[in-house]
User: Which sequence fits this backbone?
């Protein structure tokens, strides 16, 4: 009986969290939990608020720019002490800069890849170059942020010293896991209608889409999991922060949604070499920096097979896929990834620091 | 032949398709393990641990079955077509309703002194922006003052940056930086293929 009341308690807490989000809005900076790692905002412009996290001890020469996805708040990368990618990297001696995306408002519905890559990321890179007095920086992109990082590296190759992409959605022709089918069911006309109706794709729609991919998990199993793991030290705090992040969706600008659905999803333009940014064709062969492409073998949000072709498409001599047995978010928050994966990424970057 | 003896039951289970294997696990957990554990608990008065374990095994089998069923539905192209069609139809109806009600009421509400839906939406956006600004101010206040580093106010003159191409080559749009000391490259026109 105690198990049922405990699970019911977690379920109720989760239901209230979701209903609150639907009623009062999903992600915003004001709703973020307290940062685990202290930072300073060094630049704000366009849709970017650029944070700087100082390296602990002697710093590597090349700073890191972390680019996270556009659809949720980035605090998942700095969740809590001991469960923070940012903290992990600063402890390895890297100066870390994180792009904290500012959510688009109605007037931003015409923001596409060009605006995010050639303006926002380009400005952020410039800010890092000036702040650290370096010519080239390392860029780490996570999920959709990995796609943005890759596009930036292709459009502005001279600024990128190293590129790390994690769980990169690249080849949209894969058809294995539910999200492959679900994310590509919308026709071009349907997507255009959505964008015309809402301007920006609302957070509740993004939230509902991703939750609907694993309904049993989100409606029941994660609460049962919380009950079964109650005895584990720190688990509940972690669970609640993770839940908060799951409810931190922000609007997705209308134009970039259309480009993602139509150009990347339906036409697979990046793979075929026909994608354009600001009128220029994106040539992935122009990516010449060393590239580490981290693939989560248990990823159910980005098909691992979708990331795999990257080394064949880019012009770098030093490039490799790095398979790691983790899920989509496990790469950011699991204790195993923080103990093994991120130190490996740090070593890879450190070896290419000179 | 040098081959290790194989567990015939296990190999048979592995040979089954995943859906059948899930169903088999589910049946085993619900129809065999759980009743046996319950009977042991009642008859032999064993402790609850074994019954708990059998219960969680049954639960895991049910969840696995549900997840497999969901995946089966989602990977079905007919479902995709129906779901996409339903969504597009819903959005189309919403668009039509918005246009229709806009046309009918756009001039009626102001006439009787009531705000239109656009007015309400604009006000809601403004309130949301104010709320965000207030949150921002609170966060900034709590975090203490943030000063622009000297490097940003006075960029090094001897530093070479590949920034003009980043800022200008692909766009004429400028974004105003936060700090006044930020030195932006002068906007310039690049004329190509100029001939007499």
Assistant:
């Amino acid at each position: 009986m105690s198990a049922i009341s405990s699970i019911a308690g977690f379920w109720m807490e989760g239901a209230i969290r979701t209903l609150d989000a639907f009623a009062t809005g999903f992600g915003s900076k004001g709703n973020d939990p307290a940062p685990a790692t202290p930072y300073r905002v060094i630049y704000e412009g366009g849709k970017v608020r650029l944070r700087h996290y100082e390296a602990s001890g002697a710093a590597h020469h090349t700073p890191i720019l972390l680019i996270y996805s556009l659809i949720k708040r980035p605090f998942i990368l700095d969740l809590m002490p001991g469960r923070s990618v940012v903290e992990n990297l600063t402890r390895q001696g890297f100066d870390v800069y994180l792009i904290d995306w500012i959510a688009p408002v109605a007037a931003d519905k015409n923001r596409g890849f060009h605006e995010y890559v050639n303006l926002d990321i380009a400005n952020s890179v410039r800010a890092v170059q000036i702040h650290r007095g370096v010519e080239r920086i390392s860029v780490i992109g996570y999920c959709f942020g990995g796609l943005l990082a890759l596009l930036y590296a292709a459009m502005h190759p001279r600024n990128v010293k190293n590129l790390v992409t994690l769980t990169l959605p690249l080849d949209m022709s894969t058809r294995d896991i539910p999200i492959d089918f679900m994310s590509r069911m919308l026709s071009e006309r349907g997507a255009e209608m959505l964008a015309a109706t809402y301007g920006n794709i609302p957070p509740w729609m993004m939230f509902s889409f991703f939750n609907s991919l694993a309904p049993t998990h989100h409606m029941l199993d994660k609460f049962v999991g919380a009950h079964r793991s109650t005895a584990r030290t720190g688990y509940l705090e972690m669970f609640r922060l993770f839940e908060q992040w799951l409810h931190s969706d922000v609007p997705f600008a209308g134009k970039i949604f259309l480009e993602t659905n139509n150009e990347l999803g339906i036409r697979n333009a990046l793979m075929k070499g026909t994608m354009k940014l600001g009128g220029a064709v994106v040539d992935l062969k122009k990516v010449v920096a060393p590239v580490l492409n981290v693939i989560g073998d248990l990823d159910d949000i980005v098909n691992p097979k979708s990331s795999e072709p990257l080394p064949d498409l880019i012009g770098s001599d030093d490039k490799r896929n790095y398979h790691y047995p983790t899920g989509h978010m496990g790469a950011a928050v699991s204790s195993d990834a923080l103990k093994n994966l991120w130190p490996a990424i740090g070593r890879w970057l450190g070896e290419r620091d000179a | 032949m040098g081959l290790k003896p194989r567990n015939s039951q296990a190999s048979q289970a592995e040979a089954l398709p995943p859906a059948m294997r899930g169903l088999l696990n589910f049946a085993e957990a619900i129809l065999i393990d759980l009743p046996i554990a319950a009977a042991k608990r009642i008859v032999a008065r064993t402790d609850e641990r074994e019954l708990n374990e059998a219960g969680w095994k049954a639960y895991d089998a049910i969840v696995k079955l549900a997840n497999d069923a969901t995946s089966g539905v989602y990977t079905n192209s007919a479902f995709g077509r129906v779901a996409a069609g339903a969504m597009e139809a819903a959005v189309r109806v919403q668009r039509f309703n918005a246009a229709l009600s806009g046309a009918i009421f756009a001039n009626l509400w102001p006439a009787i002194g009531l705000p239109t839906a656009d007015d309400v939406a604009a006000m809601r956006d403004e309130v949301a922006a104010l709320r965000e600004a207030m949150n921002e101010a609170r966060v900034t206040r709590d975090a203490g003052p943030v000063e622009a580093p000297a490097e940003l106010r006075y960029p090094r003159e001897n530093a070479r940056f590949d920034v003009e191409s980043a800022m200008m080559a692909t766009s004429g749009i400028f974004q105003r930086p936060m700090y006044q000391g930020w030195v932006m490259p002068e906007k310039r026109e690049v004329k190509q293929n100029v001939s007499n």
About this structure: The CA atoms of residues 60 and 178 of chain B lie 53 Å apart. Residues 15-74 of chain B form one domain. The mean pLDDT of chain B is 69.
